[in-house]
Amino acid sequence: MRDKATERWSTYEPFFIALGDKKVADIVITNHAKSRYGDRIESGQKSTEEITAWLWECLQNKQMLPYYRKEEDVYLIDDDIVVVAEFGELAGPYPVEGGPLHKMIVVTFLGKMSETIELRDLKSYYSWLRHSRRMTLMKNGRKKK
Q: Rounded to an integer, what distance in angstroms lies between the CA atom of residue 104 and that of residue 25?
């Protein structure tokens, strides 16, 4: 084994990244999020591993921040890309610092604020979506009678 270098993880290096009060140790991309990534963020087919590696890098570089201060399910990447994520606790040993580790489940990519201006105020955007869907349902209901 002489002249062969081996890479080894440092035993003191944390294997999670803090995001707010969560300790993210794993990232899961849903099929919906993967399709939305291709439609709204970057055209072309990206593998789940590539998207996960990109998100992990964004977490390491502190590029991912909460959209609202008190809510923990909508995040901004580089002050442009809007991501919806949920968190679940991972079973197993806890780190030395204590507290559970979490897996971040990326539900969807809403898009880029630079391209979709409505994303700048999500609360009004969601209320507009609910209203437009309700009106569509009401119109369709009237047609059937």
A: 8
